[in-house]
Amino acid sequence: MTTPMNQYALNVNGSQHTVVAESDTPLLYVLRDDLQLNGAKFGCGLGQCGACTVMVGADAVLSCLMPVSSVGKRPVKTVEGLGTVQRPGVLQQAFIDEQAAQCGYCIAGMIMRAEALLEAVPAPSDEQIRSHMALNLCRCGTHMRILRAVRKASNKMAGKA
Amino acid sequence: MLLACTWRPAIAPLAQAGPAAFDPALVRRGANLATLGLCANCHTTQQSAPFAGGLAIATPFGTVYSTNITPDRDTGIGAWSEQAFARAMKDGVGRDGSHLYPAFPYDHYTRLAPDDVRALYAFMMTRDPVRAPARANDLTFPLGLRPLLAGWKLLFLDHDAAPADAARPPDWNRGAYIAAALGHCAACHSPRNALGAVDQRQFLGGGEAEGWYAPALNAKSPSPIAWTRESLTDYLRTGIAAEHAMAGGPMQAVTASLAQADPADVRALATYIVTLMGKPDARIEARARDAAAHPVVLQPAPAGNNPAAQQLQLGARVYQDACARCHASGRTGSSGGALQLPAAVAVYDPDPRSLIHIVRDGIPPGPAEPGRWMPGFANILSTEQITALAAYLRHSAAQQAPWPDLAKQVAAANQDTASK
Questions:
Q1: A with B: how many residue pairs have Cβ under 8 Å apart?
Q2: A59 to chain B: nearest residue by CA?
Q3: CB contact, 8 Å: A66 with chain B?
Q4: Is the pTM value of this prediction over 0.95?
Q5: What are the backbone angles phi and psi of residue A7, rounded to the nearest 5°?
Q6: Which range, B248-252, B261-265, B285-289, has the best average confidence (pLDDT)?
Q7: CA gap B48, A60 in Å, rounded
């Protein structure tokens, strides 16, 4: 069966884009190949590692699984939308402060999953952070630093630090 | 008279703390029985020490918390004599004489052979004692009154032995005993009556567990392809049966426990269950086998502008865009590793609950297992898309009559997630 080429209007990090793609193209490929947003990574392509996590609407979503045809009008936010090298976002700065990246491959996904949590739950408990982040994997083993970074960002956003 | 029925005496605590001496062979036998009996599935939680309890079990009558069954003297069963343990297992009465709620499946364990109760006692009493007080149950009035359970037991606690048939081979009889007594399969796989008791007239006729449909294991089995002793043994030991299903929801913990049991016992269980199932409809089986062998395309959605046809067309697009990459073999170099949906039991179930759960939540790998299961699509697909997908799979993969309450069931699954 052939999948038709279609035009899709996407709102990514506040900007409007039009892409031409087959309907089953994963959002991840569109972000990386068409929009040159290379923060989100291809890890497993099977929704099992979380390296491709971005936000769609209010949810953290595995962009390798999400067909571009399913995005609809929901806004997409990637790690590039949180800040710049000169002016990192709160979570990005917390990850730098805690030196939470080792090889860094999982980090964009980790940050976006954490962002979805902090937007929905401003002061999560440690238990909430752990269970929310559980799906994303880090093969370097920097989980404890990642948890500290999320905690730090959460405190900062709550004005506690 | 009523008082005489409801009142049960306390059994004196053991005089001494600390583990008694048990024959190691008896303890090992008890360990196997505990995996077949799924003890840890309720009495161990992710947070708790082994067998220390605390799992919240939602029932139609409120929430019951599993208890600490380690040999801790104050908060576990360390002061329980073997007599007290046996009475709990077979009559549902605690050492202090109080009636236990049948969330603890004594209505099944009552069929246990005395030797097996002894072995389970030896196993439990040699675990590490853990101090963990039981949480108070949260039941709707008046069910918090334990003496009422005596009436429930008069009606529903059936002490009959497990089914046995001298004309059948020993492993069939062993399987029948495991299913009825230890494995308590009927607790989920049979319908329950209004008072929460297993309906014995519809034994293994399909039930529910944690919002999933627990398929019928008798002649009503929804599987389009006949289960064999081999395929069912594989499923029960690994959670995967290539031609049928992958264990999801509460069944994942069951297969994880059975994976640790004596393989001969699991095989016996499968031997017994497949004889209950009978044969699927020959026409449906032939079609499912054929479709599963050539699943590059499912039957297309019907043309037309009416709402039903449009829903099926949307479902077909969702299938094509989100599912076919793994579920349709031959589509790309790496596709087709996943279950072929014309063979998948869940699309033939009498209601869509399990399919909705699988699509929304996926099937996560067990603790410390590599990721090899199915990801969830709850945040990826909209409610409308999930509903349409389920309608399409029912129509094209199973080719069965539409599920009547599909939209309502998808909405209920949304609610369930929102409340967690």
A1: 53
A2: B379
A3: yes
A4: no
A5: -95, 135
A6: B261-265
A7: 29
Q: Write down the pLDDT at residue B56.
A: 93
- The half-sphere exposure of B2 on its side-chain side, counting CA atoms within 13 A, is 5
CA-to-CA distance for A111 and B239, rounded, in angstroms? Answer: 33
Helix and strand counts by DSSP (H, E) for chain B: 18, 7
- How does pLDDT run across A55-106, given as a tens digit for each residue? 999 999 999 999 999 999 999 999 999 999 999 999 999 999 999 999 999 9
| Out of A46, A48, A67, closest to residue B321 by CB | A67
* Whole-number pLDDT of residue B20: 63
Which of B171, B326, B311 is CA-nearest to residue A44? B326
Distance from CA of B323 to the nearest CA of A (A): 9
pLDDT above 50 (res B118)? yes
Q: Is B223:B264 a contact under the CB 8 Å cutoff?
A: no
DSSP code for B392:
H
Other C-beta atoms closer than 10 Å to the C-beta of B172 total 18
Q: Does A60 touch chain B (CB under 8 A)?
A: yes
B296 CB neighbours in chain A (<8 A) are 1
Distance of CA B43 to the CA centre of its chain: 15
Number of residues written out for chain A? 161
**Coil, strand or helix: which one is B100?**
coil
B324 neighbourhood in chain A, CB within 8 Å: 1, 24
CATH of B170-277, picked from 1.10.760, 1.20.58, 1.10.10, 1.10.357, is 1.10.760
Residue A24 in contact with partner chain B when CB distance is under 8 A: yes
Query: Which among A12, A128, A131, A114 is positioned nearest to A53, based on CA atoms?
Result: A114
CATH of A5-81, one of 3.40.630.30, 3.30.1330.120, 3.10.20.30, 2.40.110.10: 3.10.20.30
Q: Do A62 and B385 touch (CB under 8 A)?
A: no
- Among residues of chain B, what percentage have pLDDT more than 70? 93
B390's CB contacts (< 8 A; 6+ apart) are B315, B352, B355, B356, B359, B403, B406, B410
Facing A69 at nearest CB: one of B321, B324, B365: B321
| Superfamily of domain covering A90-157 | [2Fe-2S]-binding domain (1.10.150.120)
Question: How is residue B99 written in tokens?
Answer: 């009636």
Beta-carbon separation of B321 and A44 below 8 A: no
Complex prediction ipTM? 0.90
The C-alpha atoms of residue B380 and residue A63 are separated, in whole angstroms, by 9
pLDDT tens digits for range B306-323: 999 999 999 999 999 999
Spelled out in words, what is the top-level CATH class assigned to the domain B292-418?
Answer: mainly alpha
Say if the Cβ atoms of A65 and B324 lie within 8 Å.
Answer: no
A58 touches chain B (CB under 8 A): no
Chain A residues with CB under 8 Å of B379 CB are: 56, 59-61
